[in-house]
Amino acid sequence: MKRAKIVGVGAYAPKRILTNAELEKMVDTSDEWIVQRTGIRERRIADPSEATSDLALRAAQQALERAGVEPGEIDFIVVGTTTGDMAFPTTANILQHRLGCRNAGSIDLYAACAGSVYSLSVGAQYVQTEKYRTVLCVGAECLSRITDYTDRGTCILLADAAGAVVLRASEDDSGILDTDLYSDGKYWEFLYQPGGGARHPATHETVDKRMHFAKMKGNEVFKVAVRMFGEAAERILTRNGFVADDLDLFIPHQANLRIIEAAVKRLKVPMDKVMINVDRYGNTGAASVYVAMEEAWSSKRLNTGDLVLLAAFGGGFTWGAALLRW
What we know:
Layout: E1 4-12, E2 16-19, H1 20-24, H2 31-38, E3 42-45, H3 52-67, E4 76-80, H4 91-99, E5 105-109, H5 115-128, E6 135-142, H6 152-155, E7 160-169, E8 175-183, E9 191-192, H7 204-208, E10 215-216, H8 218-239, E11 249-252, H9 257-267, H10 278-281, H11 288-298, E12 307-314, E13 318-325
Parallel strand pairs: 4-5, 4-6, 11-12
Antiparallel strand pairs: 1-7, 2-3, 6-7, 8-13, 9-10, 12-13
Helix pairs in contact: 3-4, 8-9
């Protein structure tokens, strides 16, 4: 079975920057408090005219251009998102049309902030089994649209962005070596959006109760997330005969600097081998790993032959890891 290989990577972040100083005027918080607890100094917020598919389109176009792939060559599109343009059609369907991928099937994948690793794993299967030759994997979010800017526990974290990769079969030893996906629904009340679905459809009551915004129990999320990160990373390394010292780069979900640092300490990976941009982008959900990967590539922190570990977790909870040879 051939490995799926990333042949092009792209990312897009909205132009508007929301700083900690601006948040100080909106909620009871301070720059010092935010930085100490999250490591975030600023985040990107989509313009009111922008939706998730707009961000996804920009990231996908860049990935296709860098891969030297025409839209008509794409066979399948997987979009990881929690904040699709609408209930239906899927954001992937909208992206397929706007890109001009006339021959492509498409799906949205809902795994919250783990949508990056999940979409990469799903896309890789199609290439590895030779079902499809070229697959586009995207992570895109407009999390600002489900952010309660009266709740300092969530509004300091969430942001908007998109990232994308193009997958094709590898002709050498490079490519995605392995992926590992997990979930445990017993943690759903730690991080969720109660309104807008079949259980609590939109009504005056759900709007008045602010049920259409993300809800989070921060301390509980922190404790579980650190364990998830560590266990998934350790398991995938061991299964493939590697140890942490073998890694050239670790690209974690950019949820919170404290979570990243705790997970890295458990893994015993030096911080100079960890890609971090949460300070400038905040938590961009399913986009975050792809956005960090694009930055690592464009800044030449990713080089041919590098052993790279990806890990992410999200509400549900869902989590997972991917190991690849660049």
